[in-house]
Input
Amino acid sequence: MSILIFRDTKTACAAAATMIAGQLLERPESVIGVEYSDQVLPVFDSLSAMTENGLLDWTRTTLFQLSELVQREDGITIREKMKTAFLERTGVRQERFISPDSVSENWADSCHSFEEHIRDAGGLDLALFTVHTDGAVLFNGSGPDIAPITHVEFYEGRKTVTLALPSLMQARRLVVLLTGNTLAQAAADCLRGPVNSGFAASLLQLHGAATFLLDEEAAALLG
Output
């Protein structure tokens, strides 16, 4: 694993975008997994700008959205947000954009199907995501039992569908973005604390090709 510290959030997000762009330029048919979150949105903006400038071509890339909200009648899906924030700005083909179901009559089948799509694509070449203040990764909370595959998780009052941590760890490269002072303690526990399921993000230390991108605020407690 490697840890890179940048002076501010903007620079850290630009670095994350550069890493993804490098992956895409090296292998245009890459399989990339992304988390949708406020912290990741600036990365989407940078990648969209590169695309609009003619530097990137996403037509051969397969994009996996790594989590989804179980939809309520009045709810908007993460997939719809992803379309606006990223797909419509980059030209990722609809048939190459795969997300977990937001509605299902059989969640076991739906979750298994999502895992099968990743396997059929050859696995994730790179995954971009952040860490929650409580150590959750995507929506995988901390605790003695780590779910082995994509599953429905009850997190912060909402039901979500999330790629499991063991499945995420099978990605060939991880790009973990940690920015802002609210993540300082989580960053310290994730990168300097003991590896244990009691703080799920600490398990990321075990990935040999994980790159952690932090701004100075998030890195404040690393020592």
